[in-house]
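cron nightly-structures :: item 1 of 1
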Amino acid sequence: MEPANLFTPSNTPTKVFVGAAAAAASVVLVASSVWRRRLRLSYELWQVLHTVLAAVAVVAALVHVLGAAVRHVYLTRIALATSALLLLACLAFAAIQN
């Protein structure tokens, strides 16, 4: 099996693209947080951007991990346990926000 190459999408598994999307969203999230004032983002716009990027990063990372775990039974258990913990954390955060 050839290694994944982002420049040849026909040979690259979807989980690689989803993982790259998670990483990119995380980088933009951190950059927008560090340089919010320099980028002249209003707090309200930054808050919406931060929320959307965080959701994209978490969901994409979860899809990436679950996609990678399909080939390995022991990873599937770990991925499912991690997913359950992540879901609980999201529910707790949502409860705190309301």
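cron nightly-structures :: done
The chain has three helices and no strands.
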